[in-house]
Amino acid sequence: MLLTNNYMNNAKFTFYYLLSLVALLFTAIGTGIILFQIINSVIADAGTFNGYTDEAMRFGIAALLVAAPLYFFTARAINDNLVKGLLSKDGPVRRWLTYLILFAASVTVLGWVIGTINMFLSGDLTIKFALKLLTVLVIAGVIFGFYLYDIRRGLPKAKDLGVRLFLAGGLLLVIGVFVASWFFVDSPKEARAKRLDNTTINELLSLNSSINEYYSTKKVLPTTLAEVLKSGGYISEDYLKDDNDQAYEYKIIDDRKYELCANFLADSKLDKNSDQYKYSRPYPEQNWNHGIGRTCFELEVPVISEMPVIKTIQ
């Protein structure tokens, strides 16, 4: 019976350690990503593409929200079983899996440091590099400091000061980072509005291409968007309305100039994402910035060896 209980305990503690390993990695990575994005937001650098992104920040928040409570729960459960004597301090399960956690953390930190140095060599600002490297070293120091202390400590106590400091300090750090992240990331409502606006811009781009194609074939602008639809091209009937089922407006200005108008839910000029409203098309002076509500864009059909110029009409 004793042998059976030992096997059951070994399986249970192996599960605890492996679960804490996965939760620890997600917690550390989530914390690092949030701090990296805060640095990117506070220290803007137009000369690189390593700017702030809401996508990365949202992943970091999700990682902390799920993984951090799980990690602190498993870490406390492991420590409680050590204190009660159910988990052997010098047993193979504890030693092997503790060093496995240290190994996995080492690989993660190594990759992080290499990536941070690579960004610096690619042109990242020195202050950003220094702060990001400091972030990695602090996170690594906390993890290695605790687990090296844990594996070397003497007889586990119910009120071990080192363990209590780590759990309390780590919890405060995670809570602080989690709270700070909400001052930078968009709310779910704002994120949805920007995503819908991005879809609207993409549809306007398709309309723009279809109108230009229509002109190149017929040498005249279409009188309505329905004519563009009938002629084929890049669009379907869905492209004639936005996500709120409101029709896009089209108006001819002169022989080659026209306007496309749409309603938007967010102000692109206030967007923190450096590339959120930059669209990769081979045209200079392209401007699809917009405010909240109705915005019209003045476009011009290009001729050979000439590029169209787009102006935002406020």
UniProtKB/TrEMBL annotation:
Alphabetical UniProt keywords: Membrane, Transmembrane, Transmembrane helix
A Pfam family per the record: DUF5671
Protein name per the record: DUF5671 domain-containing protein
DUF5671 domain sequence ranges: 15-145
Lineage start: Bacteria, Candidatus Falkowiibacteriota
Organism of derivation: Candidatus Falkowbacteria bacterium CG10_big_fil_rev_8_21_14_0_10_37_14
Annotated transmembrane regions: 15-36, 56-75, 96-117, 129-149, 161-185
InterPro entries (alphabetical): DUF5671
Keyword Secreted on entry: no
Highest taxon in the source lineage: Bacteria
